[in-house]
Amino acid sequence: MLKRGEAGVSGCCVLDVRLWGKESGLSRPYPVVCHLLDTSAVFQELWDVVVSNETRLAVAGALGLGLAEARSVVSFWAGLHDIGKISPPFQAQAPLLYGPVRADPAYVSAPGAEGESDFRHERASHWSLYSLLAEAGYPNDERLMHRSVSHQVAQLLGGHHGVFGAVLKAKQARRASDYNPGLGQCGWAEQRQVHFAELRRVTGAYAVPQGGLPAGLAVVVAGLVVVADWLASQASVIEPRIPGLGWAGTMAEIDAHWQGAVKRAPEVVKTARLGRAKFSAGEFGAMFPFTPNSLQRDLVEHLPSMIDEHGPGLVLVTAPTGDGKTEAALFAAALMGHAAGARGLYFALPTMGTADAMLRRVEAFASRALSGERALMLLHSMAWLSSPDGDGPAGVSDDLADKGVISAGRGTVVEAEGWLRGAKRGLLAPLGVGTIDQALGAVLPLRYNVLRLLGLSDKVFVVDEAHAYGPWMHQLLVRLLEWLGEMRAPVVLLSATLTGRTAGSLVDAYRRGAGIAEPSGVVPRYPGWLFASVTAEMVSPARGVKSDRVRTLRVSHRSVAWDALESAGAPVLEGGRRAVLREVLAPVAAGGGTALVCCTTVAEAQQTYRDVRAAFPELVVSPGGVRLLHSRYPADERARITAECAAAYGKPEGGPVSVRPASVLVATQVVEQSLDFDFDLVVSDLAPIAQLLQRAGRGRRHRRGPLGRPAWAAAEDEPVLVVLDPLTAEASRPPRSWGAVYDAGLLTRTSRVLQERALGGIAVPDDVQWLVDEVYEEEFVDRLEGAARDELVRLDEERLSGEAAERHLAAWTSICSPADVKGDLSKLSVRDAGVTQELLTTRLGADTGRVLCLYRQPCGRATLDPEGTAEVPGGGRWGLRPAELAEVARRVAPVPGRWLRGGEPDTAVPQEWGTHPSLRDLVLLYMAPAGEGSWVCQYGRFTISMSGVGLKAH
């Protein structure tokens, strides 16, 4: 070892700069002490420019330290994260560097210690730091290890690779190297001690915390440690700072390296765009280029005084589709974000399509209402393919594409670039728009879930379509709201159809996380809003507002015989669904205008499309006369159809408005949420009342005036919803083809309510809340008698037991509430097999697969397109190039998993394509031409076809 006096000294031991911390991709090895110093310096900069003053004060208060002392202490902790690299198994990963150390008699370890590859360096950090911190005077209680400050910090730092280790047992912790030979013995322990002491000296972290961190603050600090480590580990950061030959780690050299790290840290953090956006306290008119409607005006008049008196909290907005909820939410977010000093916003939506559509609106809001760092991310599983400009794929660098990054395209001036586009980093951007699953992953025990919690901890969290999630995702949202309440993050919830019980569960979860156990007893008003403070036990009574557009929804309830899957050439059954469709769509074909036909399944939508074309040939000859939209298209084709629909059925751009040419869109549930489409007529198969009201909201949604509607739809404030109801005296159960898409009991309840209540029309918005609550009320069965009552009771029991099972699954899969952490961060990492992000991206119980059609051309080669112009990429040693990967991913389509059971040879993705997540479990379908633009292949027991109506199987 080095001679005393040549390096930093602790006791009788000197710092050994031969111990490396980084070496891959570098010109020379980087001493571990240098990486510890760099990480501490970056953490200090994150603390100064990313962490809010409120959070800094809370951390200092929890530790019982002053602000300056807390800054030094937590940055010291951050540097300690990799002290476990001073261990035989880690150093042995670079044999040439390990050789001299191994030969040094000062280093003693058990035989084979360097082979303990399962004893990773982060575990070594956890085990060794417990005793190092205890010896440094940190409070310690071996009887209750999880409450010991020394153990909490050690466990927190041992989790810097995304998983927290279990609480140590006192007996084992006292003899750590005996239980873990990978720690090494003499020499190794001394080096960890001297590195610990040198880092403490340069950071000035001599203050000793008197208490530990509560769960919310612990995950914030843990997340910041990960970020600091990642930033300091960039080759571009390390390479210029590699010490020269002869660098010995003397006290003066350590001090010089530290000063250089502190000087460089601001640029490192700034380049990553991890700063803070700043919400203005401006007026509504400064944020939006229009005057507020009645809902927005009521928020403008009353919310500011509530926030001034009680602080920020949760705002729940309930209003019909098209009533300006998005702008209301963004205004409320600006007010609460300003009051809370929040660093940004995340806008969560139910689907990728709705997230893509929202990006521009949030960008426009940010340009008017925020200053400071406004890096904006689009976040969902396929966001790396999205271009906000709609003019092609996003730019994806080779290394990012290989890692399966989440990124936005290049089109927006506030778009996040560079470092934020790396995997697992998207929620760290100040601003984000994406799918709800990106946020809910924070409460699953996934690797690096603390990064998601950190990303949401100091933002305003906006949830659109809060009613749109099933029981298990609702339960995960409840858990997330508990964590956001604990972290005092402002929240805005939006819904068009939310039951009172559901609203109460969301508000109470947020308050529970904030330490307020008393139920709120909220009763939402429709349309209206309410406010719940996160710092006081104040919940405002829901404020009802007068809608600027009072309408009467005319419901035409039609009981029909179910013949939806009959071929287009089959005789039309009187009283059947096909006959009623011909009747209600006839005015469209004759007088112009637009209609939506919303079907329950993709197969029924495909057959309905064919039937409408057969019934109205005059529409077929007109461009866009009959369109079809569902999920079972390749991604690029679905995007093209959606864009075409937005142009045909979207909001008028200004100028004179006229009656639109006759056009019918046949679609599935994909049109229910957040798509700003307007139709003169809406026709829907029976669905639960909430879904029907969502679909009805697409009826005469925009003000087109008397010249913009056909004569048969002139009453703009009396939109018509035709409900095709298969529940008749002869058929009391839903069609078998619907499977488990909807709960049969809710369909029965909705059918009866429509028959009883809809004859005089439904007043929108006044009747909406009680209509939704009525369908779900427990006493509903008391209206029925005999067999009908018994059947509904049975169906209700099935639904309630299914919902209970989903809630149980959420409890099984999710992390615990913050109140239950109680000093043991491993509770955030314990999970059973099968708990993955994919659980969130598909509906619970949905049997899904993904396919890529390859089209065999007459010459025998396969192409990505039927026309034969897009070659199938070959790949190579490093997998597909980014452009090739994007070309493949844009052509993938989802299908029912049952289509793919049994399998076929040679349908897996070639090894040469690589292991990008978008290729995972992808099945290749080799399609042969079948005439009339159709392509087919045999896969197991199914014949799968691709044509203008998308994918089908029989």
Structure report:
By secondary structure, the chain is α/β, with parallel strands linked by helices. The protein contains 32 helices and 28 strands. It has an eight-stranded mixed β-sheet, with helices on both faces. A seven-stranded mixed β-sheet has the order 17-18-16-19-20-15-21, with helices on both faces. Strands 22, 23, 24, 25, 26, 27 and 28 form a seven-stranded mixed β-sheet that branches. Helix 6 runs antiparallel to helix 7. The radius of gyration is 31 Å and the shape is globular. Residues 1-7 and 387-417 have low confidence and may be disordered.
Can you give keywords for this protein?
954 residues, alpha/beta, 8-stranded mixed beta sheet, 7-stranded mixed beta sheet, 32 helices, 28 strands, 39% helix, disordered N terminus
Low-confidence parts: 1-7, 387-417
Major sheet: 8 strands, mixed
Based on secondary structure, the structural category is alpha/beta
Report the end-to-end length measured between terminal Cα atoms: 74 Å
Describe the structure in brief.
By secondary structure, this protein is α/β, with parallel strands linked by helices. It is built from 32 helices and 28 strands. Helix content is 39%, strand content 14%.
List the helices and strands and how they pair.
Blueprint (H helix, E strand, L loop, with lengths): L8 E2 L2 E2 L5 E3 L7 E2 H18 L3 H11 L3 H14 L7 H4 L3 H9 L17 H15 L13 H10 L11 H5 L1 H4 L8 H16 L11 H18 L2 H4 L12 H22 L4 E3 L4 H4 L6 H17 L2 E6 L6 H16 L3 E6 L2 H18 E3 L3 E4 L18 H6 L27 E5 H5 L8 H9 L1 E5 L7 H16 L4 E5 L4 H14 L14 E6 L9 E2 L6 E9 L17 H15 L2 E5 L3 H14 L1 H4 L5 E4 L5 H15 L13 E5 L13 E5 L3 H8 L23 E6 L18 H14 L4 E3 L3 H9 L9 H28 L24 H4 L6 E9 L5 E2 L18 H8 L2 E5 L25 E10 L2 E6 L2 E6 L2 E4 L1
Parallel strand pairs: 6-12, 7-10, 7-11, 9-10, 11-12, 15-20, 16-18, 16-19, 17-18, 19-20, 22-25
Antiparallel strand pairs: 1-2, 3-4, 5-8, 6-13, 13-14, 15-21, 22-23, 22-24, 25-26, 26-27, 27-28
